[in-house]
Design a protein that fits this description.
By secondary structure, the protein is an alpha/beta fold. 26% of the residues lie in helices and 19% in strands. It is built from 6 helices and 14 strands. The mean pLDDT is 95.
């Protein structure tokens, strides 16, 4: 069965939307080909609140968050990862509320840069972000009527955390699993092997509802993730087929594989192909001289 994406999401800018008992979603007005209609921030609790992913440094989004908080205490601000559409507003929201900022850690790449390699994703990284409290995989923070467990899900970024609402089977999946599109996995910030391993980890959980960082909720997360995994394997096979047919560069692979994709996303598609090639080279299926790179030349191993 082909993977079916749900693009019917309505952002309701400037308003809080109830998505579960004592859980509200507020979507930031930062739509783009990479963020869909914008970044979802979530408020959890009734009396003393937690915020998940405060979002970009946007005045109107901060005003909406504060209006919804309505003077109630905020004990924690949880940040899933350090891209500029998720973490920058944490500092201003902390200044307004006095909340503790929680994340896996500062921004870092999934691997070191190669000699002469530049990071095309530098502009999207919030390198100034530093959490007040680091949260490891499996750690639990208790609040006023809620408990949140960190679920380490590297792949999109090296420091990506999903957040499980304990006792509710609800997972805030951030950018690891989204209903509207596949996740961008782009070296050196992300790694395909990490992404696939994190998918397998989430498939072992019993969550009934995913609330992603962009777009609408996922009500049957296991079926959707199985589709995502199959889609990634299909993409891997397509890349391997192009290599075996004589495509030697990522550019020619993207032109063939992503010919029906918005050209504005071809740069990101090239980085996704690189992520797959890094994994294929590591497994000995594809060969290249030196470390895999965006400008590398690739050959089949057999």
């Amino acid at each position: 069965m082909p993977l079916k994406f749900d693009t019917s999401f309505q952002p309701e800018y400037g308003e809080a939307v109830d998505v579960a008992s004592d859980v509200q979603r507020i979507t930031a007005p930062n739509p783009s080909p990479f963020t869909f209609h914008g970044t979802n921030s979530y408020l959890i609790g009734r009396d003393t609140l937690a915020v998940i992913d405060p979002g970009p440094d946007d005045d109107s989004h901060l005003r909406t968050l504060l209006a919804t908080i309505a003077g109630r205490p905020v004990s924690h601000i949880f940040v899933s990862h350090t891209h500029r559409d998720h973490s920058p507003l944490a500092a201003r929201l902390r200044a307004e509320t006095g909340a503790v900022v929680v994340a896996e850690g500062p921004h870092r790449p999934a691997r070191p840069l190669g000699i002469g390699e530049t990071n095309p994703l530098d502009a999207s990284a919030d390198t100034e972000f530093k959490p007040d409290l680091t949260m490891s995989d499996g750690a639990v923070i208790d609040g006023d009527g809620w408990s949140i467990r960190g679920v380490f899900t590297p792949g999109h970024t090296a420091n990506h955390l999903a957040f499980a609402l304990e006792g509710r089977r609800i997972l805030f999946s951030a950018d690891h699993v989204m209903a509207w599109a596949t996740t961008i996995v782009a070296p050196p910030d992300g790694a395909m092997a990490d992404y696939m391993a994190s998918l397998d980890l989430l498939l072992e959980r019993d969550d009934r509802l995913f609330l992603p960082g962009h777009g609408g909720q996922i009500g049957a997360p296991h079926a959707f993730m199985r589709g995502l995994k199959a889609h990634r394997k299909m993409r891997e096979r397509a890349i391997l087929e192009r290599v075996r047919k004589g495509d030697r560069t990522i550019r020619t692979m993207v032109e063939a594989i992503y010919r029906e994709t918005d050209p504005r996303l071809h740069g990101a598609a090239g980085l996704s192909v690189l992520a797959h090639l890094e994994d294929l080279v590591a497994r000995g299926v594809v060969l290249t001289e030196g470390a895999p790179s965006i400008d590398g030349v690739y050959f089949p191993a057999t």
